[in-house]
Amino acid sequence: MDSLPAIAEVYRLETPEQALALLNPIRADILRLLAEPASASEVGRQMGEAPQKINYHLKSLEKVGLVNRSGTRQVKNLIEVLYRAVAKTYVIPDSFGWSEELKNRMTDQGALRQLLNVSERLRQDALKLMEASDAQEEVPSAVVETDLALPDEETRQAFLRDYAEAVRAVVKRYHAKGAADSDGAFRAVLAVYPRVDQGGGSGHE
């Protein structure tokens, strides 16, 4: 497999065509699954779709620069092309001049995709930590969960400002350069989203 630079955390979209690609739910899911190199067949199995259909969307994503080829792999008598997304999350520039409704729709989708990415990472990390706990290793951890009342857009924006300010203060106090490689490295994940009731709808409580 060819050597590629590390996948970017955030990619600022460069063309409207890239943004339109993200509006397609299948292509958005493909990008989410390509945080690591994979073939059309692998992505198709995870999504329950035919490899030919996934390959069509991969070609479109490659054309607008949202995925790159990361090498090839031989599977029996076939040579599979491996692809990887250029980033984990995407930012829509204001310069595109799109309507607020469309920009909000894309921003919401991007935030929800990031929530899915984080959820999957949490699940995988938790499984590894449970294995360590089963091996009688000490695994210090903590979870903070609460309900919020954010009934309207003004309240939600005010909360986000306060939330970001408080998080920055805490992170500044405990963040250290190179912490990820140290013995005392921990990961903090913070998320805000509407509660989902038992009937499957969402409500702001």
Question: Can you walk through the features of this model?
Answer:
The protein is α+β, with helices and mostly antiparallel strands and 205 residues long. It is built from 6 helices and 6 strands; from the N terminus they run E-H-H-H-H-E-E-E-H-H-E-E. It has 2 domains: 1-140, Winged helix-like DNA-binding domain superfamily/Winged helix DNA-binding domain (Arc Repressor Mutant, subunit A); 142-205, no CATH class. Helix content is 46%, strand content 15%. It is globular. Strand 2 and strand 3 form a beta hairpin. Strands 1-4 form a two-stranded parallel sheet. The protein has a two-stranded antiparallel ribbon with strand order 2-3. A two-stranded antiparallel ribbon has the order 5-6.
Please give the structural blueprint.
Blueprint (H helix, E strand, L loop, with lengths): L7 E5 L3 H8 L1 H9 L6 H8 L3 H13 L3 E9 L2 E8 L1 E5 L8 H35 L18 H22 L20 E2 L5 E2 L2
Parallel strand pairs: 1-4
Antiparallel strand pairs: 2-3, 5-6
InterPro entries: ArsR-like_HTH, WH-like_DNA-bd_sf, WH_DNA-bd_sf
GO molecular function, one term: DNA binding
Protein name: Helix-turn-helix domain-containing protein
CATH superfamily of the largest domain, by name, is Winged helix-like DNA-binding domain superfamily/Winged helix DNA-binding domain
| Structural class category | alpha+beta
Identify the overall geometry.
Answer: globular
Mean pLDDT: 77
How much of the residues is beta strand, in percent? Answer: 15-25%
Largest sheet: 2 strands, parallel
CATH class of the largest domain: Mainly Alpha
How many β-strand stretches? Answer: 6
CATH topology of the largest domain: Arc Repressor Mutant, subunit A
Distance between the termini: 49 Å
| Helical content band | 40-55%
Distinct helical segment count? 6
The whole-angstrom Rg is 20 Å
The arrangement of helices and strands along the chain is: EHHHHEEEHHEE
Protein name: Helix-turn-helix domain-containing protein
InterPro entries: ArsR-like_HTH (IPR011991), WH-like_DNA-bd_sf (IPR036388), WH_DNA-bd_sf (IPR036390)
GO molecular function, one term: DNA binding
Keywords: DNA-binding
